[in-house]
Design a protein that fits this description.
With 333 residues, the chain is mainly α. It is 63% helix and 0% strand. It contains 18 helices and no strands. Helix 6 packs across helix 9.
């Protein structure tokens, strides 16, 4: 996918994007947003979020999310109170699977862990979860919302296939991976919210794909530090870029064009997801709050001229809690 073919979807290739004019949030919104726990917050704040009757397994999931998936943690905090604990369990399950690849030295060990989670899901649906905090909370979520087993298994199967340290052959392969992991997670979140709607499913599919592409881009500096490159080979070949170019952190224009093409594809998925805005039930909007973080990254990478190794891209957005709260208040995604 050449950069020139995507200019109309993204806008100018280089920085200089005009700011967006938005409604002013109501007074006191800053105070509400500031109550969202900080990533370095104390255990006391986690307990407060969990509630006085929270179990140890519930707090375990909260803490795991707070440390390993802070953006997902913040998004889950803004879900309706009755759905929150189930969303925490679901995202903690995803974190457990996501960190298998980086925590094992041999693929065989990774396969064993994936097999554990496959058996765990089977046991959860037989009402006999193992004595593992995430498994217990997942069982509660399944019982409470009658979650579809197929989506949980898709996430495991796709993560298992991804244990190989191979670059994606093309952008479609990356999107397929994102559909089976990130989009499946969103389908389950919609079930937690009690949403059964075709338009919401379509939006979830596109947002999940955008999430997968952005995650691949964001992780590139980390993977590069470990001598790994997972960016789609078809786009790299299109611009005459090798894996070595990314390993030595090249800032050549053709390297930036690879990043531009991928960022543009993520931008297009967000645009498609929002095209369903008027048809998607308002009750489903909280499930899609992660679009705030995705759009924030895409704007930042455009501002630095698609230099994927720019230091500013590695900095945490301290205003993210406020941005999420405002988007939640506006009932938009």
């Amino acid at each position: 996918m050449a950069a020139s073919a995507l200019v109309s979807a993204w806008g100018p290739l280089r920085p200089g994007v005009p700011g967006l004019c938005r409604r002013r949030p109501p007074r006191g919104l800053w105070a509400h947003a500031r109550r969202l726990p900080d990533p370095a917050g104390s255990g006391r704040s986690v307990a407060a979020v969990s509630g006085p009757g929270a179990s140890g397994t519930d707090r375990y999931c909260l803490e795991l999310l707070r440390k390993r998936d802070y953006e997902g943690y913040l998004c889950s905090l803004l879900l309706p109170a009755e759905s929150r604990s189930s969303a925490f369990a679901l995202r903690a399950f995803n974190v457990e699977l996501a960190q298998v690849k980086d925590s094992v030295s041999e693929k065989t060990i990774g396969l064993m862990r994936m097999q554990f989670w496959k058996k765990t899901v089977d046991d959860v649906y037989c009402d006999s979860p193992p004595h593992q905090p995430v498994a217990i909370e997942l069982w509660k979520a399944v019982k409470r919302h009658n979650l579809t087993k197929r989506w949980l298994m898709k996430i495991i199967d796709e993560r298992e296939k991804n244990l190989d340290d191979k670059a994606y052959r093309n952008i479609q392969e990356l999107e397929n991976y994102a559909e089976n992991t990130q989009s499946s997670l969103l389908y389950l979140t919609l079930e937690i919210l009690g949403i059964k709607d075709l338009h919401a499913d379509h939006a979830a599919s596109h947002i999940g794909k955008a999430q997968g592409i952005v995650t691949c881009l964001r992780a590139t500096p980390y993977h590069g530090s470990r001598r790994r490159v997972f960016l789609p080979m078809d786009i790299c070949m299109l611009h005459g870029v090798s894996q070595e170019d990314f390993l030595r952190k090249s800032q050549d224009k053709n390297v930036r064009d690879v990043v531009y093409d991928m960022a543009s594809q993520a931008h297009l998925h967000l645009k498609h997801a929002r095209s369903f805005h008027k048809s998607v039930p308002v009750k489903a909007f909280p499930a899609f709050l992660q679009t705030v973080a995705l759009e924030d990254y895409l704007k930042k990478i455009q501002q630095v001229d698609f230099d994927i190794f720019h230091p500013s891209l590695q900095q945490k957005n301290t205003l993210l809690p406020l941005s999420l709260y405002i988007q939640s208040w506006r009932k938009r995604y």
